[in-house]
Design brief:
- The complex is a heterodimer of chains A (477) and B (234).
- With 477 residues, chain A is an alpha/beta fold.
- Chain A has three domains: 127 residues, no CATH class; 239 residues, NagB/RpiA/CoA transferase-like (Rossmann fold), CATH 3.40.50; 73 residues, no CATH class.
- Helices cover 52% and strands 11% of the residues of chain A.
- In chain A, the strands form three sheets. Chain A has a six-stranded parallel β-sheet, sandwiched between helices. Chain A has a four-stranded mixed β-sheet with strand order 8-5-6-9, sandwiched between helices. A two-stranded antiparallel sheet of chain A has the order 11-12.
- Chain A is globular.
- The termini of chain A are far apart.
- Chain B has 234 residues and is of the alpha/beta class.
- Chain B has a single domain, classed as Rossmann fold.
- Chain B is elongated and about 70 Å long.
- Chain B has a six-stranded parallel β-sheet with strand order 1-12-7-4-2-3, sandwiched between helices. In chain B, strands 8-5-6-9 form a four-stranded mixed β-sheet.
- The chains are: A alpha/beta (477), B alpha/beta (234).
- The interface between A and B is large, with 105 and 80 residues.
- Strand 9 of chain A pairs antiparallel with strand 9 of chain B.
Chain lengths: 477, 234
């Protein structure tokens, strides 16, 4: 698919910046999500402390990950669930398929799951004649549009209301809905009515998991729409797809994360539905699935442990980092060309796919530090991005022009007198070139940079000369 | 496919990255104790306080989450309050009740307007009435445990969900729910205080909602459009 080309990052980003619809959609994100989160954080005086405890808990679990996964498995199976260990996306897809085929499944409803996106489950199910039905409204919209998600919690956040109106008309007309709806409430209703029967018809329901609880062998999902609950309650089988690092020790420990998750993600006090699921329906229950399966996906996580990017495994997938990222806000999620986007995606994707595949992503950041500031589990995203940049350089996947420019810079940087001389000469040269207007409209070798702005002509002395003068003054004073 | 060796390979890879073998029995014991004591982490101040203040906070937070709340003097007033709510909001009067002894034992026949039945919810059921296991003050959250008498579908399928909650069931923080759950579902005679989990614990905070169309919040995405709480002042 055109969207999923991480190598085309620069092209994608340029196209995204010229896309008016995308810019108007992203402006809403900026106006809504940032103040919402801040409000929720301000209303809970203990937020910082809870955050710190969350970070400690995640670090604790990672150090004993094998133990907690074994306890999870034992308790899940003791309550009638089944655990499937899957090293690769292919293993996970096969495991899901085998379960679906055991009941001759024709239709599968799905709650929102980034792991299902990571393993590209929908395409695989379709290839095996099983219809995957996305039920989260955002996921449903992008399924109709045949696009990947552009945000980890708001997958269709890049779509304007008008675009959704068109999309619904195009796909719902054959179902007798020939009127183009423009009122969001009516649009939500239309999707609700169309999906309703699908919940009851599905043979298997697939959800993700925000947490797995070692103590009880349970999975937890946090949603607002209620689709995840209909998805896991009505079909014969409930499959949970989750990655290894989702495990937490106890219900109490999960609670600490629940208090920071919704506040960081949407600025809600609590999401509408937090659901703990344990095993299949009990013998005398009158509803619920007959089987409960948990797919435990590794896909590179075990290799991240003990490495310099281990901190990334603390991520609770709240999306605050992308909501606050100036680069993400400008180019949207699709430009990244990966399943995970924004700052967390730029750090996680190279770990999952290899740095050679996506060398541009760690550079898709100004390292301004907003992401780390709002991260509820204090992942040092800028530092991790710099580490990937270094790895990319070492691996020789950085383009020659950049390598050449860096080595020229390094040559001067290692020779301070030459650097100072060069800076003085360059400054005078630039000052001369811009003498008429006090600025330059065009720069050789940096035409792209001056396309949208002018470079002010330098005045007076170089920074270093000024700095030296000031230091001398201080000493004298 | 998932086999025993997949499991061992993944656990082996984890241990290799961590640079240590599987934990010793002693080390495991320490961590098992962490699980067995399941100590609470920090509980925010808003989840603590006198019972009356907590009930008040529960109501405020539930209303802030777009619930409607009515307080009645005793449980005998519940069927009337349900009828009033449905009539007042022009909602259907065919009601499906959770097959819960306490709830079905109330005088529903006295409400000539209502047509009641019990069971799990089907696609055509538009109003459900259920009890709850607890209400949590810190966020106005209702907690329901699934079981033969408390089908999960009643919480999600109907357009309108009415919950009858006794004020004595209101607690301050989520941790108190876990404590009550462990107490209520104690496995008798099991050493170490084992307990059973229901298939579902549903924590419900307001009606269903979405912001997936242009970040505009709309209620009633897939679950109930309306969540009404009848709070019994016991």
């Amino acid at each position: 698919m055109e969207f999923m080309q991480p190598g085309a990052f620069k092209k994608n980003a340029n196209r995204a910046m010229a896309d008016r619809d995308l810019r108007s959609a992203m402006a809403m994100l900026n106006a809504g999500m940032i103040p919402n989160r801040q409000g929720a954080v301000d209303r809970l005086p203990e937020f910082e402390q809870l955050s710190r405890r969350g970070r400690e808990l995640k670090d604790h679990v990672l150090v004993y990950l094998d133990f907690y996964l074994e306890r999870f498995e034992r308790n899940c199976e003791a309550s009638g669930g089944h655990v499937h260990w899957c090293a690769t996306p292919e293993d996970a897809r096969r495991a899901v398929l085998k379960i679906c085929q055991s009941v001759d499944a024709k239709s599968v409803t799905k709650g929102k799951s980034m792991i299902a996106e990571e393993i590209h489950l929908n395409t695989f199910l379709e290839q095996h004649d099983i219809e995957p039905v996305e039920t989260d409204l955002g996921e449903y919209i992008i399924q109709l549009a045949e696009e990947p998600p552009s945000h980890i919690i708001g997958p269709a956040i890049h779509k304007t209301k008008d675009q959704v109106s068109d999309l619904f008309l195009k796909h719902h007309a054959v179902l007798g809905r020939t009127e183009r709806q423009t009122d969001p409430q009516k649009m939500v209703n239309e999707a609700r009515e169309i999906l309703r029967q699908k919940y009851f018809d599905a043979d298997v329901g697939i959800t993700g998991a925000n947490y797995l609880i070692a103590e009880t062998g349970s999975s937890i999902i946090v949603t607002n729409e209620g689709n995840g609950d209909l998805t896991q309650t009505l079909p014969k089988i409930h499959i949970v797809v989750a990655s290894l690092e989702k495990v937490v020790p106890t219900l109490e420990d999960a609670t600490t994360f629940l208090r920071i998750l919704a506040r960081s993600a949407t600025g809600q006090e609590f999401s509408a539905y937090t659901t703990v699921s344990t095993g299949a329906r009990r013998d005398d229950d009158v509803d619920g699935p007959g089987e409960y399966h948990v797919i435990l996906l590794d896909n590179g996580r075990s290799a991240m442990l003990g490495s310099e990017v281990q901190d990334m495994l603390r991520c609770i997938r709240c999306g605050a980092c992308m909501n606050h990222c100036p680069v993400y806000q400008s180019i949207g999620g699709h430009s990244y060309g990966t399943v995970y986007v924004g700052p967390m995606g730029a750090v996680l994707s190279p770990a999952l796919l290899g740095v050679a595949e996506i060398k541009h992503l760690p550079c898709a950041s100004t390292l301004c530090g907003r992401c780390e500031e709002v991260c509820p589990v204090s992942i040092p995203l800028p530092r991790l991005l710099r580490q990937w940049r270094q790895r990319a350089f070492e691996a020789g996947v950085v383009p020659n022009v950049e390598r050449w420019a860096l080595s020229v810079w390094a040559f001067f940087a290692k020779r301070p007198w030459l650097y100072g001389l060069g800076a003085r000469l360059a400054m005078r040269g630039l000052a001369y070139l811009g003498r008429k207007e006090g600025r330059m409209r065009k720069l050789w070798f940096a035409g792209g940079w001056t396309q949208g702005r002018d470079l002010p002509a330098p005045e007076g002395e170089t920074f270093q000369a000024r700095w030296r003068k000031q230091q001398r003054k201080k000493v004298m004073g | 496919m998932s086999t025993g060796s997949d499991r061992d390979n993944i656990l082996g890879a984890i241990r290799q990255s961590l640079g240590r073998p599987a934990l010793t029995a002693d080390a495991q014991k320490g961590l098992d104790e962490h699980i067995a004591t399941h100590r609470s982490n920090l509980v925010p101040a808003r989840g603590q306080g006198g019972h009356e203040a907590l009930v008040q906070r529960f109501q405020e937070m539930a209303v802030a989450a777009a619930c409607t709340v009515v307080v009645v003097a005793d449980e005998a007033a519940v069927p009337g309050a349900v009828a009033d709510y449905l009539r007042g909001n022009n909602l259907p009067t065919q009601v499906i009740l959770a097959p819960d002894d306490w709830l079905t034992g109330l005088n529903w026949d006295g409400q000539s307007l209502l047509e009641t039945k019990t069971g799990a919810a089907g696609i055509d059921d538009l109003v459900s009435v259920t009890p709850a296991f607890a209400g949590v003050a810190e966020t106005g959250t209702l907690v329901a445990l699934s079981g033969p008498k408390h089908p999960t579908t009643l919480n999600f399928v109907p357009d309108n969900h009415v919950v009858a909650l006794r004020a004595s069931q209101v607690v301050g923080a989520y941790e108190e729910v876990w404590a009550r759950l462990r107490e209520a579902n104690q496995i008798s005679g099991k050493e170490g205080g084992g307990f059973t989990m229901p298939r579902n614990i549903n924590m419900i905070t307001g009606p269903s909602r979405t912001a997936d169309i242009a970040l505009t919040i709309e209620l009633g995405a897939h679950g109930p459009r309306n969540l009404h709480i009848v709070l019994i002042d016991d």
